[in-house]
Write a structure and sequence with these properties.
The complex is a heterodimer of chains A (213) and B (349). Chain A has seven helices and five strands; from the N terminus they run ααβααββαββαα. Chain A has 213 residues and is of the alpha+beta class. In chain B, a hairpin with a 3-residue loop joins strand 3 and strand 4. Classes of the chains: A alpha+beta (213), B mainly alpha (349).
Chain lengths: 213, 349
């Protein structure tokens, strides 16, 4: 059953004395003298959550690869593992998962010792929708999305990420945020670090389990 | 002959001072409005250009001046440009009859800080106020576009309703003062030890409503109604031509009508009033500048109150606005006139 809720109509005295006007005015004056909650964007920036879908990057080989998946893929494609270089195994699953596959340009090359390594990995972000399917598809946790969200550039060329740039973003990310937990709960201290950085006072949220709502 | 020359020189100085103050302050009121609006919405407003955005009006002006001047196809170019002049001139002219302070003597000349103390000052104010409708109607017509036309027709409807109401509303103070000259009205209030707002609260409320309606401030801003009409009659204007309309409507007119409201209801330059007893002046230490400070303070407070209303209230529909004017405001003012006529002998003392 739908319960209809309507405000009580004003009496003639309330109309004559502008009671509703005065209520509204008291609300606005209270807000006018409380602190502003603006982030002064170019001068101060909020840190996005870890799972933010920003620019792409390649995580590099540092011993934290998902095992045994990584070793299996290396074995299958006979990949040369170079520490400090991209984990990419040239499986092309990211390109398969992509709704606009032509934005990927991936090539591998054969080294003299018979092993293979990724040589070209270009992503044309002019075509990208930042949907993250490629990240989900990556079997070796190589391709990921970082917290870099200021993606504007002066030329179209700048919107193409090549292998070198992807690796640089990956190294930067691994140094800064790899250790953070993936998920942030509402009562997590991590959450405060993200959103309370600028002394912004968010209202205290009442934490209740899902069944209590 | 010498006194004529002196009179002309004094008048020119007055004109320059008033024009400088009005247009300069008018430009800076954009900054004030943006700050007030922002803080009501818990934003800081302009912060980048200058300290707390103090140079923002200059930056805005520079931007508006350097913009391309577009003209709608099949519009009427003469009327299109005439509308701007018609909007700016009457609104500024109202300040000719706004008294800023009491008479003082300088180098042997008696100077009233009012441009022309004509004995029909208030009639002049309302005559010039009615002229504003021509600017808007012409702007809407000359643009050859539907939104401006709708906006200007709405504004014409409002002004026709509220000019009647505002004229009847000021009838009360006029009966009490017995004069139409703005300077004399303030003098009378000081002589009678009475701000007219104490005995004319209804007239004051009606005057405030009419002020909001004539200047297109919020409960009555349907002539621009950005949600429906983009910006109403200014849609086809660009650059500085566009900048002038809000400047005139929202700032110069609000300022002039606030000044008139202060003159009529709050005793112009007089300090705080205790009805029928006398005046209390907490700003006595300013000496001869205290009246000017009081006038400025009252106009500023009234202007800020109008801003506060603007950023609080939602918008009425056109039928509700005209209905309020003809069915509620007009009878109220008529009752108020009768009431005033009854109490007038007490006030005249």
């Amino acid at each position: 059953m739908i319960k209809r809720v309507a405000a009580k109509p004003l009496s003639w005295l309330e109309r004559a004395l502008f009671i509703d006007f005065i209520k509204g005015l008291s609300v606005t004056i209270r807000h006018a003298f409380s602190r502003t909650i603006t982030t002064h964007y170019p001068y101060e920036k909020l840190t996005p959550p870890k799972r933010f879908r920003g620019f792409f990057g390649h995580k590099v080989v540092d011993g934290n690869e998902p095992q045994p998946a990584y070793d299996e893929w290396v074995e299958r494609f006979k990949i040369e593992v170079i520490p400090g270089k991209s984990r990419c195994v040239v499986c092309m699953l990211c390109k398969r998962a992509c709704p606009v596959p032509q934005l990927f340009e991936i090539e591998g090359k054969k080294l003299e010792n018979g092993k293979r390594v990724v040589s070209v990995f270009n992503m044309n972000l002019m075509l990208c929708t930042f949907c993250g399917f490629c990240v989900d598809a990556c079997p070796v946790d190589c391709l990921f999305q970082s917290d870099i969200h200021e993606t504007a550039s002066y030329t179209r060329k700048d919107s193409i990420l090549d292998l070198e740039l992807l690796e640089r973003i990956g190294k930067d990310w691994q140094a800064r945020r790899e250790h953070e937990p993936d998920r942030i709960w509402i009562d997590d201290s991590q959450r405060e670090k993200l959103w309370y950085e600028n002394d912004v006072k968010l209202p205290e949220l009442e934490f209740r389990g899902r069944h209590e709502w | 002959m010498e006194s004529v020359v002196a009179g002309v020189i004094i008048a020119i100085i007055k004109i320059l001072v008033i024009l400088g103050i009005v247009l300069g302050v008018g430009a800076y009121l954009t900054w004030v409005e943006r700050k007030v609006a922002a803080h009501i919405q818990r934003r800081p407003g302009p912060m980048v250009v200058g300290w707390h955005g103090l140079l923002q009006p200059l930056a805005d002006g520079l931007k508006l001046i350097t913009k391309e001047d577009l003209f709608p196809r099949y519009g009427n170019k003469f009327l299109y440009n005439l509308a701007i002049v018609l909007a700016l001139v009457p609104a500024t002219l109202v300040f000719a009859v706004v008294p800023f302070g009491p008479e003082f003597e300088l180098f042997g000349y008696k100077i009233k800080p009012i441009l022309t103390d004509v004995n029909v000052g208030l009639l002049l104010v309302f005559g010039l106020g009615s002229l504003a409708v021509y600017a808007i109607a012409i702007a809407g017509w000359a643009s050859n576009s539907k939104y401006p036309l709708i906006g200007s027709m709405r504004k014409a409807g409002i002004i026709i309703s509220y000019e009647v109401v505002i004229t009847f509303a000021v009838m009360g103070p006029l009966i009490l003062a017995g004069t139409l000259s703005t300077y004399e009205i303030v003098q009378k209030q000081i002589e009678q030890n009475l701000w007219y707002v104490w005995v004319q609260p209804v007239a004051f409320v009606v005057f405030m409503f009419a002020l909001l309606a004539e200047t297109g401030r919020v409960p009555f801003d349907i002539q621009e109604a950005e949600a429906e009409l983009v910006t109403g009659f200014t849609v086809e204007y660009g650059g500085m031509k566009f900048g002038l309309f809000p400047l005139v409507e929202w700032y110069v007119e609000v300022l002039s009508l606030s000044a008139i409201a202060v003159v009529l209801f709050f005793g112009g330059w007089s300090p705080i009033n205790i009805p029928f007893v006398g005046f209390v002046d907490p700003l006595f230490f300013l000496g001869p500048f205290s009246p000017y400070a009081w006038f400025l303070l009252k106009v500023t407070l009234l202007f800020l109150f109008i801003l506060w209303l603007h950023w609080t209230l939602p918008r009425y529909r056109i039928d509700q606005i005209t209905e309020t004017a003809w069915k509620i405001m007009l009878p109220l003012t008529l009752i108020n006139i009768v009431f005033t006529a009854v109490i007038a002998p007490v006030v005249w003392g």
